[in-house]
Design a protein that fits this description.
heterodimer; A: 140 residues; alpha+beta; Sufe protein. Chain: A; 4 strands; 14% strand; B: 404 residues; alpha/beta; Aspartate Aminotransferase, domain 1; Aspartate Aminotransferase, domain 2; 4-stranded antiparallel sheet; 17 strands; globular
Chain lengths: 140, 404
């Protein structure tokens, strides 16, 4: 498996193929549908990422120096974006995750989902993913 | 005036969003502003700006006169008895907070009750929760019916000896329900209960006559009625305002200050601490002129036409469900697809240039009652057209296909 940059570039290349927003969002919706389900026991308030409209549940574990994430959302587009984040960050080393600036989201034209409106939990989701990584790194 | 001509007074409506013409259907959140409002504000800063009620110089007199004339215009706009009953605030939220604080300080005692309804905006819930917790009083909630209307029988039976005040919305921001404000007030007054009406969603659409309503307090915002953000009104009957202690303190609200004792100014200045937002008050006055010139009858007939057309068009879309079916409804239409999250719908509508509001509309308790995570809300204003309703309906049909 590749490192974070390689995975990001892979996604950027995929998104370059789309001519219009419809194709892009259809792809996101497909990604959302194919996101591996999170274990039901983590779909509780404890694992809820604070957002406003779409709820996001996030769980992470640390094995052999790698962080593994699983997540879910009740909104499909949010789920599709989560699938991208997991593809990039899951299985990577905690230190690399903390350093990454997630600029690929901007490059594939999804920056609006990170805006400071209270409408979605994506910015908080990224923050929470990094906080997990930070906690794992501290714990060694 | 035709709607196309009217649209030319709103420069922002010419914008393109995501390479499509903007279809602005989020008027219940805030309306766009006509040129005459924008120019009134700009003109104030170009020609009249000065601090009011203080200086003896030319500009100060000019600005003071403009500000106090605006108060008179607002008095006439809602048919209050005296200009001193018109308090300028930052908006509906601040108006309600003012009453919750100052009325609460004076009248609320341990064991008393405040009555609100299940369809209130957070800004007509939280200030009362705080006042209740401060004075060890209890918040009582009137439920709504399946059709999304206030349960009037429940309202009658919830009122009692301990009820100090009822705070009810005139028009629901989430459902569009128009509550029978006159009847609510009459019932409450039989119980000697004063009534505050949250009119934020009413003043853009219907004539409000506070004397005919006989409400004790009426609150509304400038920005939802084609006026500027950051300005609103609290109307209060003099008999209450005179008894209530100040809300905020500082300049403007005082008569005499020494380090030992301060005496407070008269109404309405007692409740307007600090330098007021003169420019936006003048902008609000311009907005009331704009509305008066259009006329509430014409505004209502245009908006009812849009609402009925939207219900008909959207009603044909598979699995789309309206959240309420009140007998009297303002031009607010809340709906969901049962199998699509409102957020997904909102994102895709935006991609097609259509601005709606999605989410809980700051009415989380209401969403819990309706058992939905939120709704999609299309709300219409004077400048919207049936063609825009068609664009909305087509966009929704497309979303239906995308997420099937």
């Amino acid at each position: 498996m590749g490192n974070i940059k390689e995975k990001e570039n892979e996604i950027i290349r995929e998104f370059e193929l789309f001519d219009d927003w419809m194709d892009k969002y259809n792809y996101l919706i497909e990604l959302g549908k194919s996101l591996p389900p999170i274990d039901e026991k983590y779909k509780t308030d404890k694992y809820l990422v604070k957002g406003c409209q779409a709820r996001v549940w996030l769980y992470a574990e640390h094995n052999d120096g790698r962080v593994k994430y699983s997540a879910d959302s009740d909104a499909l587009i949010t789920k599709g974006i989560i699938a991208l984040l997991i593809r990039v960050l899951s299985g990577q080393a905690a230190g690399d995750i903390i350093k990454n600036d997630m600029s690929f989201i901007d490059e594939i034209g999804l920056r609006e989902h990170l805006s400071q409106t209270r409408s979605n939990g994506l910015a908080n989701m990224i923050k929470q993913m990094k906080l997990y990584a930070l906690a794992f790194e501290k714990a060694g | 005036m035709g709607v196309q001509e009217l649209r030319r007074s709103f420069p922002i409506l010419e914008k393109r969003v995501n390479n499509r013409p903007l279809v602005y259907l989020d008027n219940a959140a805030t309306t766009q502003k006509p040129l005459e409002v924008i120019e009134r504000i700009s003109n104030y800063y170009r020609e009249e700006n000065s601090n009011i009620h203080r200086g003896a110089h030319y500009l100060s007199n000019l600005a003071t006169e403009a500000y106090e004339n605006a108060r008179k215009s607002i008095r006439s706009f809602i048919n209050a008895e005296n200009s001193s009953e018109i308090i300028f605030t930052r908006g509906t939220t601040e108006s309600i907070n003012l009453v919750a604080h100052s009325f609460g300080e004076k009248y609320l005692k341990k064991g008393d009750e405040i009555v609100i309804s299940a369809m209130e905006h957070h800004s007509n819930i939280v200030p009362w929760q705080i006042a209740c917790s401060r004075h060890e009083a209890r918040l009582r909630v009137v439920p709504i019916t399946a059709g999304g209307e206030l349960d009037m029988d429940a309202f009658r039976s919830i009122l009692g000896e301990k009820t100090r005040l009822a705070a009810i919305t005139h028009v629901s921001n989430a459902l569009g329900t128009i509550n029978p404000a006159r009847e609510i007030i009459e019932i409450a007054h039989k119980n000697d209960t004063p009534v505050l009406i949250d009119g934020a969603q009413a003043t853009p659409h219907m004539k409000v006559d506070v004397r005919e309503l006989d409400c004790d307090f009426y609150c509304f915002s400038g920005h939802k009625m084609y006026g500027p953000m950051g300005v609103g009104v609290l109307y209060g009957k003099e008999k209450w305002l005179n008894e209530m202690p100040p809300y905020q303190s500082g300049g403007e609200m005082i008569k005499d200050v020494s380090f030992e004792k301060t005496t407070y100014n008269e109404l309405p200045f007692r409740f307007e601490a600090g330098t007021p937002n003169v420019a936006d008050v003048l902008g609000l006055e311009a907005a009331t002129s704009f509305i008066t010139r259009l006329g509430y009858d014409d505004i209502a007939s245009h908006e009812v036409e849009l609402l009925e057309y939207a219900k008909e068009k959207l009603g044909q879309i598979e699995k789309l469900r309206f959240l309420a079916s009140p007998r009297r409804q303002s031009s607010v239409l809340s709906f969901i697809f049962d199998d699509i999250h409102p957020y997904d719908t909102g994102v895709l509508l935006d991609k097609m240039g259509v601005a709606v509001r999605t989410g809980h509309h700051c009415t989380q308790p209401l969403m819990d009652i309706l058992e939905v995570p939120g709704t999609v809300r299309a709300s219409f204003g004077v400048y919207n057209t049936t063609e825009e309703v068609d664009i909305l309906a087509d966009a929704l049909a497309r979303i239906r296909e995308m997420l099937a």
